[in-house]
Amino acid sequence: MLKKISKKFEVAFFEVEPWEQDYLKQRLKNFSLKFFCEPIEEVPLKNLQNVSVISPFIYSKINQKILQDLPAVKLITTRSTGFDHIDIKAATQAKVKVTNVPFYGENTVAEHAFALILSISRNIHRSHERTMRGDFRLDDLQGFDLKAKTIGIIGGGHIGQHVARMAHGFEMNVLVYDPFPNKALAKKLHFQYVTLENLLKKSDVITLHAPYNKKTHHLINLKNIKLIKPGAILINTARGQLADTTALVEALRKGILIGMGLDVLEAEKYVFKEERELVSPQFTGNPRQDKEWLKTIVEQHVLINSDRVVITPHNAFNSKEALQRILDTTIANIIAWSQNKKLANQVIIK
Ligand code: NAI
Prior knowledge:
By secondary structure, this protein is α/β, with parallel strands linked by helices. It has helices at 2-6, 18-27, 64-69, 88-93, 106-121, 124-132, 158-169, 183-189, 196-202, 245-253, 275-278, 287-304, 320-338; strands spanning 10-13, 32-35, 51-55, 75-77, 97-99, 150-154, 173-177, 192-193, 205-208, 232-236, 257-262, 309-311. The strands form two sheets. A seven-stranded parallel β-sheet has the order 8-7-6-9-10-11-12, sandwiched between helices. Strands 2-1-3-4-5 form a five-stranded parallel β-sheet. Residues 81-82, 105-106, 109, 154-160, 177-180, 209-212, 215-216, 237-239, 263-264, 314, 316-317 line the site of 1,4-dihydronicotinamide adenine dinucleotide (NAI).
């Protein structure tokens, strides 16, 4: 029965690696699958007119125009937790359902956040770079203990809670800022809820785990970096736009922050663009926006070039186990939709 119904459905995957294609082919045999390594913007859409399901990763911006160009699409199933690359309002208006993968990487991303914290606190990146050159001196490599220090977690959701557990294991004091506190959870995981201001004032390690949306845009900004405890470090494995790049550069320059671990950057999408592409009139098509982006890209390079900053290329999610969980959930999302079942992972904006 399923075979008969689902055969009709064409599914297009974007930003998909060859090994993922093999996995998906094996498990979605009753669907007609199309695979693209590129983000959706770089794919000609005219051959995708019968596609009912699109599955992007985070660099495919799904907006009203894309939905108009693909009128047969009925489901967007992003292979990520974050869905800020999808215009949910436009999708709702077009009667297109959206699902995500809400739970694949809570421990995975939290482990990466801790890898960044320890890199900075013990100067691992700078030590490694030196010993590779045969330089085994200790000068300027002194780190600091995590034990008895305070960690401030911004966003106490799935990932933030794992960070809290790990931090407790390191015998740190754990503070959490979240607009939706849960007292029982705080008791169970040994943390204390505080305001954002107090978190910034008291934390030796600040780590971002909030979603990106209009309300969280530049949650860390030029105004509130003044509250940060001098000598703190900042970790961002959530989304680059949560922190104003200008503020990060300023905080580093003034010694407010002595180190950063960033898996995400505000203009990470443009890091690999050639200079000539960045100055071409087609960059974003909007001269004002171009100017702002170019400033952010230059400031981002200040961070990339600083030996006080450890940058990873948005790969906090990238463990073997997490990737398998992403694909399994995406497959379940597609099959549930094709069978007209209730979508467990539907994204609904209230
Ligand atoms: P979640 O939805 O379980 O938790 C987010 C928490 O942030 C919730 O408790 C929510 O109440 C809180 N929150 C909402 N608005 C806030 C605000 N203004 N200030 C502080 N907290 C606020 O999400 P989860 O799974 O913990 O993921 C968090 C984010 O991590 C995702 O939205 C995604 O952008 C990012 N992420 C990054 C990955 C990477 O590879 N770098 C991989 C997976 C997720």
